[in-house]
Amino acid sequence: MEISILGYALLGLTAGAAQTGYALRKIFEDTPMGNFSSSPGSIYPALKKLIKNDLLEQRNVNGKSLHHITDAGKIALKSFLRTPVTKAEIQSNIDHTLLRFAFLQGEEDISITLNFLNTFENAVQSHIDDLQAFMKSESASALTLHGRLAMENGIRSFQAHHAWSIYAQQEFSS
Amino acid sequence: MEISILGYALLGLTAGAAQTGYALRKIFEDTPMGNFSSSPGSIYPALKKLIKNDLLEQRNVNGKSLHHITDAGKIALKSFLRTPVTKAEIQSNIDHTLLRFAFLQGEEDISITLNFLNTFENAVQSHIDDLQAFMKSESASALTLHGRLAMENGIRSFQAHHAWSIYAQQEFSS
DNA sequence: CCAACCATGTAAGCTGTTACATGATTGA
DNA sequence: TCAATCATGTAACAGCTTACATGGTTGG
Fold it and tell me: What does each C-alpha distance from A141 to A138, A147, A148, A170 come to in angstroms?
């Protein structure tokens, strides 16, 4: 019963208030949230699966089916959000990491958020170090100008994430 | 016969020199190229499919099977690389865009690269405008501090891509 | 009244992942 | 000789996408 990233996004969105499938689709369609497809073919089967696993509960109210998060759903979401940020995660799916950050809004304690941002900062810095080490290695001598520039794009991108993490920590500390 | 992004990556890597399946796996494993899985379960079936579509050709040389790109493969790759950068692409898959950029190394004419970078710059700027417009809209007033910061992360990230595209254009002009 | 939007779903198909499986070669 | 690495593959499964399908409601 592995929960996909879309599954967690749905849990996070229903955690605040119960939602219809259509409302959830609209969020993906109208806001820059994640990069999830808003197609019914992705949302409805995903909701169905969450219900099957007792993470969501469907209650019909005048023709519309509202999805409520269950206690088990809350526990699963919390565990997802509190997982420390690793280098592997930011490397392969930093979007997922940012999604996790956004849903940390529900956590009472600010120290949870600050801790998240701290592990984020370290993971990003560590990845930047890796990329820069690669650029200095012999492997990099084989790079063409295009290849070198593509790598530099990656480094600059992660430097922006790093700067953001410092800024975000300040926002929560003040 | 849609070619997946992994398929194009394999075409791009074999375009320079014929490669064994194992060598291709090693590239994904040892270098920060794309974020492709280096597992045999992804590479070998992908190569098989390219061969079936006559985009690659397998030639056995003392037990190893070297994959050569065919003329049809070269044409497919070229058309992929020359597709203009759109807002939709950088929004959903900027990694793919960067992959396309990296493989433009094979193009003789620098103006192809400069044109690519120019459409990249415009697409990125346009997306930044969208994000900033969203932040100023009423929709954004519903954002929590976490949500606002996640959005700001996105904006900063694309600003880094924008700055890079200016820098890259300078590198090719000088 | 009719177009647009609300609202929910299914079916086929593709891609990629993990895990399993095998065997050759090479360097310590 | 034995562990690591080279080298190639298959099978089961999960997940998402596109396309298809249906019907209600509402505002101009």
Answer: 5, 10, 9, 39
B108 touches chain A (CB under 8 A): no
A–B CB contacts, 8 A cutoff, strictly below: 93
Estimate in Å the CA B41 to C1' C20 gap, whole number.
11
SS3 A153: helix
- Each residue's pLDDT tens digit, A21-52: 999 999 999 888 888 999 999 999 999 999 99
Q: What is the C-alpha to C-alpha distance for residues A152 and A168, in angstroms, rounded to an integer?
A: 24
Q: Does A149 touch chain B (CB under 8 A)?
A: yes
DSSP-assigned letter for residue B141: G
Q: Mind listing the pLDDT tens digit for each residue in A115-151? A: 999 999 999 999 999 999 999 988 888 889 999 999 9
Best A146, A159, A174 residue to mutate vs chain B (most B CBs within 10 Å): A146
Task: Tell how far CA B17 is from the center of its chain.
Answer: 19
Q: What is the DSSP string of B36-95?
A: ----HHHHHHHHHHHHHTTSEEEEEETTEEEEEE-HHHHHHHHHHHHSPP-HHHHHHHHH
Using a cut of 0.70, tell me whether the model's pTM lies above it: yes
